[in-house]
Amino acid sequence: MSEATFYLFKALMDIFTIGVVFNFFFRLLKVDYYNPLVQGIIKAVDFPSQILRSFIKPIYSLDLSVLLVAVLIQSGAFYLASMAGSIEYEPIKILIWSVYSVVLLMLKMAWWIMLGGIIFSWLANSNNHPAIVLIRQMSDQFFKPFRVFLPPMGGLDFSPIFAFIALNFFQVAFIQFAIDSGLPVWLSVGF
């Protein structure tokens, strides 16, 4: 397999993984399913999850079948890398690297969603574009647990600060775990 072909397939698999992780977030954060962006992403990436969902039932809003699809896609990407000669083929290592890659991708996406929610709350608070509404809904769900302990004070909401601190803690921890496991950083979609 040539390097250009490997890069093309790896990029397509990474894009599909991002869509699958968005699908996981949609279900976890209970966003508005009538949003056209949500419907489009679910139509594009939910087919493999539907097959697994018949065997692995969701636990409340935690859909493990979607996470399993994301891990399997990343495992396929690492397998392609081993076929291209970039890494050695070790199935257990590839599976561990795939889990780390998906977790790191989820943390990175959560960071960007929270940042987008903060920016849109300042600049486009009354805008009803589907993308802006979706990002605000998702970021509000990320901030919600922190608002229980720290309600808005005088019109200022300090919950995003604590959400970012918690998220950065998990990012640093999982990056260290991933590096210690030997994950090739240049191959991971989560870096």
Question: Structural class, from secondary structure content?
Answer: mainly alpha
Low-pLDDT segments, ≥5 res:
none
**Overall 3D form:** globular
Number of helices: 7
Radius of gyration: 18 Å
Largest sheet: none
Mean pLDDT: 91
Topology at a glance:
Blueprint: H1 3-29, H2 36-45, H3 47-53, H4 64-83, H5 91-123, H6 130-149, H7 159-180
What does this structure look like?
The protein is mostly helical and about 190 residues long. The chain has one domain (about 5-185). It has helices at about 5-30, 35-45, 45-55, 65-85, 90-125, 130-150, 160-180. The chain is globular. The model has no long low-confidence stretch (mean pLDDT about 90).
Short characterization:
The chain is an all-alpha fold. It is built from 7 helices and no strands.
Which tags fit this structure?
globular; 191 residues; 7 helices; 73% helix; 0% strand
